[in-house]
C-alpha cells in the first residue's frame, strides 16, 4: 500500500477545548476520502494539523512520508479553506490567488516566468474561471471562490489536496464542476480529503469516508459509514431521519 496521508493518534487542544483526541486516519494515494462529522467535531482542526498549521499535543502526521511543514513548503499539499477563514476584501485578483500556488516554484523575487503563467492559465481553464481571472476575489460567487482555491492547488502541482466544505454555499453547477475535477485529479494520482455536510453527494464523490467526533469513529466505504447506526454515533437521531434517502 502507498499511504499518502498518515494521521497517527493526533491530539489537539485549544486551551481547555479538546478538538482532536488521538485521531487516526490513513488515506492511500489516488483515493478520495470524505470527512463527515457534526459542527465542532474537529474537521477543520484535522486539516490544519495535516497542513502543519496547528501543532498536535501528541501524535504524528506525515504526507507521503514527509512532515506537514516540509510537504507544505515543497508544494506537495494544498488546502482549500472554509470560506469564513479567508479575507475576501483583500485586494487580490483570481489570477493572483492562483499564482500563489506557483510561489514554491519561483525564486525569492517571486517573479512569474512563462511556465508559471502557463500553469496558472491552465488551472483557471480547468476550473472554468479564465474569463474571471482579473476579478477581485470578493466579487466572486461562493462556487467561484472555491474553484479559485482548487485552481491554486492545481497550479501548485499538489499531489495531496485538502478541501474544507467545498460545497457549502455552492450552486449545483459549481458542485458538479468541483466533483468532476476532484475525480479527474484522483485518477491522475492525487489524494483528496474533503469534508462535507452533504451526505447525499458522498457516495458518488468519495471512494471512502471517515466519521469524525474528536477521534475517527469509523473509516470505510461511504455506504458503511453512512449506515444509520454509525450516523447515530456521530450526529444523533435527527440526522438519521433526514439522511435516509441517501442510504
Ligand atoms: N482557534 C480556536 N480557539 C479555541 N477553540 C477552537 C479554535 N478553533 C476551533 N476550536 C474549537 O475546537 C473544536 C473543533 O473545531 P473545528 O473547527 O475543528 O470543528 P469542525 O468540525 O471543523 O466544525 P464546523 O463543521 O463547524 O466547521 C470546537 O469545539 C471549536 O469550538
Could you characterize what this model shows?
With 247 residues, the protein is α/β, with parallel strands linked by helices. The chain has a domain at 1-76 and 194-247: 3-Layer(aba) Sandwich (Rossmann fold). The chain is built from 10 helices and 9 strands. A 6-stranded mixed β-sheet has the order 5-6-7-3-8-9, sandwiched between helices. Helix 4 packs across helix 5 and helix 9 crosses helix 10 (237-243). The longest helix has 16 residues, at 172-187. The two termini are 29 Å apart. The mean pLDDT is 91. The site of adenosine-5'-triphosphate has 11 residues, from strand 2 and helix 1. Adenosine-5'-triphosphate binds at residues 14, 17, 19, 37, 39-45.
How confident is the prediction overall: mean pLDDT?
A: 91
SSE order, as H and E?
EEEHEHEHHHEHEHEEHHH
> How far apart are the first and last residues' alpha carbons, in Å?
29 Å
β-strand amount: 15-25%
Shape: globular
Please give the structural blueprint.
Layout: E1 3-14, E2 17-28, E3 32-36, H1 43-51, E4 58-63, H2 68-74, E5 77-80, H3 94-100, H4 114-126, H5 142-156, E6 160-164, H6 172-187, E7 191-195, H7 202-205, E8 208-213, E9 215-220, H8 222-225, H9 228-235, H10 237-243
Parallel strand pairs: 3-7, 3-8, 5-6, 6-7
Antiparallel strand pairs: 1-2, 1-4, 8-9
Helix pairs in contact: 3-5, 4-5, 5-6, 9-10
The structure holds adenosine-5'-triphosphate.
Adenosine-5'-triphosphate is lined by residues 14, 17, 19, 37, 39-45.
Task: Describe, in short, the structure shown.
The chain is an alpha/beta fold. The chain contains 10 helices and 9 strands. It has helices at residues 43-51, 68-74, 94-100, 114-126, 142-156, 172-187, 202-205, 222-225, 228-235, 237-243, and strands spanning 3-14, 17-28, 32-36, 58-63, 77-80, 160-164, 191-195, 208-213, 215-220.
Amino acid at each position: 500500500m502507498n499511504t499518502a496521508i498518515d494521521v497517527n493518534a493526533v491530539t489537539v487542544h485549544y486551551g481547555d477545548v479538546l478538538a482532536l483526541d488521538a485521531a487516526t486516519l490513513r488515506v492511500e494515494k489516488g483515493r478520495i476520502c470524505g470527512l463527515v462529522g457534526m459542527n465542532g467535531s474537529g474537521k477543520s482542526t484535522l486539516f490544519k494539523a495535516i497542513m502543519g498549521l496547528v501543532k498536535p499535543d501528541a501524535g504524528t502526521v506525515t504526507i507521503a512520508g514527509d512532515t506537514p511543514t516540509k510537504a507544505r513548503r515543497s508544494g506537495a499539499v494544498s488546502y482549500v479553506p472554509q470560506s469564513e477563514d479567508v479575507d475576501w476584501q483583500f485586494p487580490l485578483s483570481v489570477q493572483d490567488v492562483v499564482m500563489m500556488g506557483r510561489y514554491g516554484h519561483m525564486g525569492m523575487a517571486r517573479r512569474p516566468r512563462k511556465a508559471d503563467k502557463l500553469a496558472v492559465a491552465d488551472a483557471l481553464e480547468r476550473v472554468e474561471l479564465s474569463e474571471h481571472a482579473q476579478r477581485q476575489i470578493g466579487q466572486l460567487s461562493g462556487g467561484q471562490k472555491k474553484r479559485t482555491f482548487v485552481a491554486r492547488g492545481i497550479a501548485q502541482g499538489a499531489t495531496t489536496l485538502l478541501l474544507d466544505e467545498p460545497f457549502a454555499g455552492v450552486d449545483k453547477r459549481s458542485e458538479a464542476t468541483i466533483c468532476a475535477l476532484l475525480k479527474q485529479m484522483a485518477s491522475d494520482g492525487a489524494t483528496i480529503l474533503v469534508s462535507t455536510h452533504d451526505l447525499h453527494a458522498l457516495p458518488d464523490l468519495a471512494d471512502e469516508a471517515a466519521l469524525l467526533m474528536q477521534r475517527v469513529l469509523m473509516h470505510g466505504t461511504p455506504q458503511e459509514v453512512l449506515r444509520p447506526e454509525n450516523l447515530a454515533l456521530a450526529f444523533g437521531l435527527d440526522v438519521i431521519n433526514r439522511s435516509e434517502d441517501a442510504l
